Batch of 2 targets.
Target 1
Amino acid sequence: MAMNERYEPQAIEAKWQTRWEEAGVFRAGTRPGAPKKYILEMLPYPSGKMHMGHVRNYLLGDVYARYFRMKGFDVLHPMGWDALGLPAENAAIKDGVHPAVRTQENIDSFKAEIRSLGYSYDWTREVNTSHPEYYRWNQWFFIQMLERGLVYRRFSKVNWCTGCHTVIANEQVKEGKCERCDSPVVDKETPEWAFRITKYSQALLDGLEQLKEWPERVTSMQRNWIGRSEGAEIDFAVKGSDEKVRVFTTRIDTLYGCTYVVLAPDHKLVAKVTAPERRAEVDAFVAKMAAVSKVDRTAEGATKEGVFTGAYALNPFTGQPVPIWIANFVLSDYGTGAVMSVPAHDARDFEFARKYSLPIQVVIQPASGDKLPEGDKLEGAFTEYGVLVGSGEFSGLGSEEARRKMAAKVEAEGRGKATVTYRQKDWGFSRQRYWGTPIPIVYCEKCDPERRGIPVPLDQLPVRLPEIDTQAVLTGKGEPPLAKVASWVNTPCPKCGSPARREPETMDTFVDSCWYYARYLSPHYDAAPFDPAEAKRWLPVDVYVGGPEHAVMHLLYFRFWTRVMKELGLSPVDEPVTRLVTQGIVNGSDGRKMSKRWGNSVAPASIVKKYGADTARTYVLFAGPPERDFDWSDAQVEGAFRFLKRVWTLAATHEAVAGATHAGPFEGKALETRRAAHKCLKRVGEAIDRLSFNTAIAGIMEYINALYAVGTPETPAEKAAMLEALRVLAVVLTPFAPHIADEIAEVYGAKGFTVNQEWPAFDPALVVDEEIPYAVQVNGKLRAEIKVPAEAAEAEVRAVAEADERVKAAMAGKTLRKFVFVPKRLVNFVVG
RNA sequence: GCCGCGGUAGCCCAACCUUGGUAGAGGCGCUGCACUCAGAAUGCAGAGGUUGCGGGUUCGAAUCCCGCUCGCGGCACCA
């Protein structure tokens, strides 16, 4: 067939997309004997239109998927929909369209856009989290975890988002605002369901060690978020009472410098220890603190405030009484909710002590030998480790040793223990919304008067979302929507059959994305969430691509879930993903985030329409390294398009070589052509291995330039070499611009699809040059450039270099002190 | 404040990690030439640098080490 002279992507792209689909080329599991690669991009929430972030995200995975397919792997590269969630429900509140209807519309248009970009997905494994066949397994997991004590119901202060009208998790609160809608988050006292993720805090922390191929920034954010700290709990007896205040400290070595103790305002001992004459003031302070949210109370820059309770605690080592205060900066849900204050050696305690004129006692001196001034002359807290002073039998010890010995002593005396605390909290996951997975729990007054909740029996799953009158139920006001659906919420108790009520709350959608990667392995399996045999073949995910914004949400939750799945005997792996790639942001051409507000958005569909998918792909991948942000540039898009036009023109002008054969030898232009092809294979392959897609494309551009320079092939050898070169071109283009690649391959006689061809190994003999340029330096300064045969030995190179006139001039009258020889690069004469 | 990422030609970026070795692979823009009646398109050629700053190691530093600076992102009263 003959190629059109003009490159018209619209004429070829839809054709190839249809052919790929009809032939099922991207289906996984078709090469049972081959090694596997599981390549995955983060499950998208199907908004109506794709944005450039999606395009880039899926491209990074797609290049890999196509490349490994050509390398002979059985590749699993699936796609699906995070279809439950707030946006569709919020839209429904506005216009009355049922979330299921809108979501399906969105999926249809989103999927059409994905198709138009030529991604290599196995659509036979498509997953949709809003289908009961999917979310029934959320419910199944819930019940398994309930039985194992990994799910529980608690009554506590929760983060209430005033915009989303629902509780959200700690991880979803950013600077006191909702991570999703930016509305203020307030405290609310309410019952909620939680996953006991903190049981796995240590395991999740330890697991980070084996995640060598995760970006440091993600693992360090997780480490930070888990927030392990080693310290000790110590009991302080309350003077004149049987009560004890248990404090948590990481600096037990400073115990002798403790001059007061502080309780959180909502600590349970506050009411018990407060002296009668202080009660009015303390109550007022507690009430005031209860009125402000935790977030405001503890925000950066919030001034430290507190009141004296009138009670005293006794230092367990010295017996010295110290006043007990309550203050805003002490949190009831961290450590023991009480701290021992050592103002000389803690910045917060110092500030507080200064404000309320509490004593400051120095008990650590710098290891350097410098002496700190007395407490009241101290200008700030000395918080480093040092040497203990005024600390009884521990004086003279270093902080580290003192920490161990003092912890051992309190433990021996039964007044405390060495302990580890985590900043991470359990994951509260009940949501007061409709468009989520129903929590499979029933409340029966008769057999469950304490309202602990009775699990729905497994054989009654799924608990389906009911059909609703959208406008009546989804109002955005009042109780959870499901509570309004009488026909659904009222149900017989599964235990005793009496009238009972269903739990009207639904699950956080982060539950859905905790295990979807395993559902892809057997998307229609109905005996379990997925087939454990398939898990053995395919897990873990080899490459996972997504935005770094999920570092402490999804990426932590699904690591947790993975461990649970292993304990349930479903999956063989501790960690879900071997290599994580976090892609950078595609900004507008003005350097600002793409948004309607700035009018700087570029719709992927418009680029595909104007230039074709191959240009869109090539540009986005060429614009920079995967992890880096970049600014959109129309000029660079034009550049990518121009490049593909050059590719097209090259292929169209050499059609005459299509049937060429030649057994060799190859010399001159023919050899040059072959060298260029093999160098390109080497370079592009190595660049893809390194995930350096931008330089891989640069390598293909260089290759194209080289083929233009070669000119028209004339001899049989030149024609055969050019044919080989064009076939190589189709191969290296396939991961990036697959449509044009297949079109070229077809013209040059390929059978089937390029992506099913083998990525050829380059010939080592063809990637080294016969002559190599050497730089000649004198005292490190470049003086000449010489060309010598590639295999030339040191003496030979030196002789050529010494013979050079410029080198002679630079060395004239000087003595040679040293000669440096770097094979294949340079020589350096050190003279003086 | 702590952690991470980045600063190379007018612009986007390679080379840095893995081996310290001529600062340039690629793209955009610019200039010139060819083609053309002319332009567009295309092809070919070219110019362009104190590698953020200072110091150290070395025969030799964009690269390794130390200090600083600027920009971006994350976390931050967690005892």
Note: Chain A has a mean pLDDT of 91.
Target 2
Amino acid sequence: MSPLSPSDDDGPPLRADAQRNRARILDAAEAVFAELGAGASTEEVARRAGVAIGTVFRHFPTKNDLLAAIMKRLLARLVAEAGELGGGDGLFTFFSRLVAQAAGKRSVVDLLARAGVEIRLPDTVGHLEQAVGELLRQAQEAGTVATAVRLPEVMALLISVCQGALHGGWDAGLQERTLGVIFGGLRGH
Amino acid sequence: MSPLSPSDDDGPPLRADAQRNRARILDAAEAVFAELGAGASTEEVARRAGVAIGTVFRHFPTKNDLLAAIMKRLLARLVAEAGELGGGDGLFTFFSRLVAQAAGKRSVVDLLARAGVEIRLPDTVGHLEQAVGELLRQAQEAGTVATAVRLPEVMALLISVCQGALHGGWDAGLQERTLGVIFGGLRGH
DNA sequence: TGACAAGCTGAGTCTCCACTCACTATTCTC
DNA sequence: GAGAATAGTGAGTGGAGACTCAGCTTGTCA
């Protein structure tokens, strides 16, 4: 893994054009990887962003760095989303939203799956676990989730169901029924 | 997709050495893809099988054909395994065994996920659905699974949980607790 | 056992893709 | 607005991996 990518560290601030391009590249990469999976070429990202390929590599020295940067944004968004939920149904809502996203976008899941393997993002992943943990706590307090349920299996289910939704191309009905089974299991009865 | 691979069609029977090599290639491929995922090189498969790479391509004109052949064997085994189970716990046992396999081997899941995407194996996948459907029917008859549960969500959960186990590297305890939640959901209370 | 078909071999081709770098263009600073 | 620093460009490099094929080997069958 390269050292910190520009705009992450505290080095000299980026030039205006560089900031613009960096944002364009991130957006393009997110879209491209969402459509084609993490196997999509860096060239395609550059084309979509409207920059030369060299520019992509200037900002993200390796393809992995680019993936990591996207992953970080995605996770940060999820954490934010989780942070806004709560109460008895927060955890369930979070599950549903994640799955709905996963069914359409390869990136979320393709990347989620890589966390901890090729990409190291312990902090951000930790934050997500923390946020989900809080949702779990609130749900258990409200009595909508059995107290025997622990965080690791909730995370495991979250990842599983995203993977499944992605690969299986679930429609809305199947999503609902599948989650229904899991929610039943979480409730305990 | 290429036409039928040798030994699937009814053309002239394979020569003895060809049969031997075909079997070796399939075994090697299964092992290699299990370890390294479907991205492993055909060269590695040839090396492990102790044949030249040309031989692999003689038997399986494209890498996809090779993957399809392995997939077919894997699914056939799963169907056979499902066929031997039954009663109130058959479905649960099947789930547990699949997940236990998935946690160790990339192939099962990596390939399961591709069914219907790159690889076309409608018959065999259909057979698996049929076999799982029978397990579901028996479990519902025995009262261990709620009657509201339908086959599609069972398949969806099966695939999800395999994906999750694969990517997350679950240990035995996590497997058990995660499946516990799902089993609870299937039971209905 | 000889002859022919079937199968095996592996160096070589082709394509794709991550990544580089010498050069040019833009922005910033004073 | 000029000079310096920063950023952009895109043809080029290197490597990996799927797939081919001309020549050699082996099994089969009369």
Note: Chain A has a mean pLDDT of 86.
